[in-house]
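Fold this sequence, please.
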Amino acid sequence: MSHLLDRLQFFKKTKTAEFANGHGETRNESREWENSYRQRWQHDKIVRSTHGVNCTGSCSWKIYVKNGLITWETQQTDYPRTRADLPNHEPRGCPRGASYSWYIYSANRLKYPKVRKPLLKLWRDARKQYDNPVEAWASIVEDQGKAKSYKSIRGLGGFVRSSWDEVNEIIASANVYTVKEHGPDRVIGFSPIPAMSMVSYAAGSRYLSLMGGVCLSFYDWYCDLPPASPMTWGEQTDVPESADWYNSNYIIAWGSNVPQTRTPDAHFFTEVRYKGAKTVAITPDYSEVAKLTDMWLNPKQGTDAALGMAFGHVILKEFHLDNPSEYFVDYVRRYSDMPMLVKLEEFNDGFKPTRFLRASDLDNQLGEENNPEWKTIAQDENTGQLVSPNGSIGYRWGQSGKWNIEQKDGVSGAEVKLQLSQIDGGSVASVAFPNFAADQSNEFWNHCEHDEILFRNVPVREVTTSDGTTIKVASVYDLMMANYGLDRGLGGGNVASSYDDTTPYTPAWQENITGVSREKVIQVAREFADTADKTKGRSMIIVGAAMN
């Protein structure tokens, strides 16, 4: 029957058969509309895919295809079984993935290049006047009025559609002009991460490299990656997979909204609580992850550093100073730079730390011939002699390729015991440390009343360099203990007498900045470190985008 006639006869009473004393009726009408629902799930084939937008989850999905178009998608359930003491990875997926085909066919998806309307008008007018596109671009940027007209509206929208040829000409002209006027190293950019598109990454990086431009790190651009990781550890988030969360006994989710940004892995975070692990969330807002944890700390936005320093103050005092943890002391001695010596230079009425003492600073380069300027120095606790232990960057990139961090003399290969502190037998010097919390330019949080430079006493020793000069050096461990304001009985000012002291960086000091109570800070720091000590490191921090 024609649907048009159906519409015309919609209000016309039709003959029906009643039943149930008139409470029901039987109609004879078209039910073709039901076919759209039946056909909604039809498909020609099922293919395996993932949502390749550099998502950390990379979940495996079944993609149902009909006539070359995606009709729907569901999660794969054929992941390999994990080991017996770990939960399985599946089910994996999230609402964003389940609706990903909507993004593909969305009318809002960009399919053509867009340019701000004022800039495009200026460009087209300039191209009518100049045959050379570089000269056309110069006529725009060298005119202050024209340049301001399109730069001042950045961030306000106003994009209009252009063509690929036109935008390519604009970009090329702008780059050529910049190279001519300022040099090729003034053209900077970055490509997509290789994990998202190898071709796009190679195209952009090759273009910039061949013209002498500067390739920025895509790593620093993504909001869900911590740039401090490569600066601190030399590796870019070289972290374990999410299943390793289940191996932990104490987890701090710091700035990471796990259920939202790590949806397919979030079940590990909740499942670990069933085996007794404690979880803590550190977020300014009561986010999804805060609802899953045993404890929630909410520092003011931008004050996480103060909270972290207070954690460090408590842990160093209780597990290194008052009751040294054998596990902690051994760990930092073997796997960190804390035994390494740092040169001190005279500053005001005291000293300031500068750079690591290197083999190249010492007589005969301490016997090191390969990259001595990149090999750090420590003291052997057994002999008192200076040694260059394996594992510094000079060894990693040296001819012999000694990558492992080991307590061995780099020249002789003999076993050594690196000395963490110079407090026994050394002298004491007043060393300057910066106090960034004294900056009064930001009115968002309360500021401490201490000076911008704090002098604290540090145990030091003297070393004679290759030119015969005698200098003072201190270990990273001693400098760190002093920086945290711990009272080691060395005298001097700017040391904390208790946790209630407002000297940087005590729990009481951070409370004034972050708004988090000192009692909670002491509790979390103590529990976190105590768990790590008793379980040999099974305490974990999940670092998220908010910590950038």
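The CA atoms of residues 156 and 177 lie 26 Å apart. The chain has four domains: 3-32, 114-220, 242-305+535-547, 312-515.
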